Amino acid sequence: MGDKTGRKLQTTATSLEVIEALQERDGGRVTELADALELAPSTVHSHLTTLLAKGYAVKEGDEYYLSLRFLEHGEYVRNRKNAYRNAKSYTEKLAKETDCRVVFAIEENRRGVYMYTSSGKHAVWTYSTIGKRFYLHQTAAGKAILSRLSRKPVEEIIDRWGLPSATENTITNTETLLDQLETIRERGIAFNYEEQLEGIKAVGIPVNGSDGRVIGAFSVASPAQRLTNEQFEEDIPNILSGVANEFELELSLS
């Protein structure tokens, strides 16, 4: 029985690897996927055939792609919690008030996940695409979330993922990060000085659910040279605080 269960788990893991490869490669042929995953073409073909039969893949010529069936699941996950649903309108409101790119992000499995994004008139492209996972210590939203956690879960996150660097400004030292989180905790605002993407600064603020626990964070990103120091360190944080308070109030009343 134990071996049989193990085989089933490995089969599931392989299917997930095929799905991830299809997304990363924007589709592919059987042999291409087999080479990328170091699997036998017959194995990959079997998994693709199953995904095709269940509606999770489509075939165009001799190439396979993920189907829109995943969109249905993604929307369900994003709207599963009331707080997640409510965050959309506040993300859009922040974008209008700041004219910048705004995201609402959460923590899941010790990584950050972008749930909503909205762009103002002067928004700039960033890595914050919906559903994308990121290292919490590299972003304003991520550090805002970390600031609401106790030391032990923060250390567990560092133990699992480390503190990889994205730019020369990324925090890569544990004590430095812990010290900054204490400052963020006291002020309630997190800053990202080109720590995830060169040329981009961001301000983040954590938000709590009705139970008082952190559920995510909003952040506002801008080209580093577009905002003055006063706008970046005072004006944007004030706008963020006001909208975050409105969001938390709505959650407490819902």
Give a written overview of the molecule:
The protein has 254 residues and is of the alpha+beta class. The chain has helices at residues 2-24, 30-37, 41-53, 69-79, 82-98, 140-146, 151-161, 174-187, 229-253; strands at 57-60, 63-66, 101-108, 111-119, 133-134, 190-193, 200-208, 214-223. The strands form two sheets. It has a six-stranded antiparallel β-sheet, sandwiched between helices. A two-stranded antiparallel ribbon has the order 1-2. Helix 2 packs across helix 3 (41-53) and helix 5 packs antiparallel against helix 9 (229-253). The longest helix is centred in the last third of the chain and has 25 residues, at 229-253. 31% of the residues are buried. The model is unreliable at 1-6 (pLDDT under 50).
Summary, kept brief:
It contains 9 helices and 8 strands. The protein is of the alpha+beta class and 254 residues long.
